[in-house]
Amino acid sequence: MQLGLVVGTVVATRKDEELEGLKLLLVKGADETGKAKGPVIVAADAVGAGVGELILYAAGSSARQTTVTKNRPVDHVIMAIVDEITESGDKRYEKATA
Questions:
Q1: Strand 36-45 vs strand 54-59: parallel, antiparallel, or unpaired?
Q2: Is 2-56+68-79 a CATH 3.40.50.2000 domain?
C-alpha cells in the first residue's frame, strides 16, 4: 500500500466495458504529512474518495483484489481514506472535519 493525495478526476465516456461503472481519480503520491509528491497516476476508486483526501492505494496485481476491481483491467485502486497518521507518538496527519 502507498499513500496518495487525490488531486483530480478523470472522465472517459468511451472505454472498455470492463471499466464501466468505475470512478477514476487522479492521485499523486504523498508523504506522511499529506503533502503531495511524485508522479500522477489514475486509480479506480473502491471507497468513495474525493478530491483533496489522503488515501491508501495499491498498485499492480493487488489492484484487482477489491470487490469493485476484481478481474478488471486496473493497475491502481484506492482502497482506504486516511483519517489519521501517528509516527513515533507524534500525530503527523489528521483529516480535517467539516
A1: unpaired
A2: no
pTM (2 d.p.) = 0.92
The predicted-structure confidence for 29-48, as pLDDT tens digits, reads as follows: 999 999 999 899 999 999 99
The answer to whether 7 and 22 have CB atoms below 8 angstroms apart is: no
* CA nearest to 75, candidates 87, 91, 59: 59
Q: How far is the C-alpha of 28 from the C-alpha of 61, rounded, in Å?
A: 19
Asked whether 78 and 54 are in contact (CB, 8 A), the reply is no
Predicted pLDDT of residue 11 = 96
Which letter does DSSP use for residue 22 in this model?
-
What is the domain partition of the chain in residue ranges?
A: 2-56+68-79
Question: What's the confidence (pLDDT) of residue 82?
Answer: 98
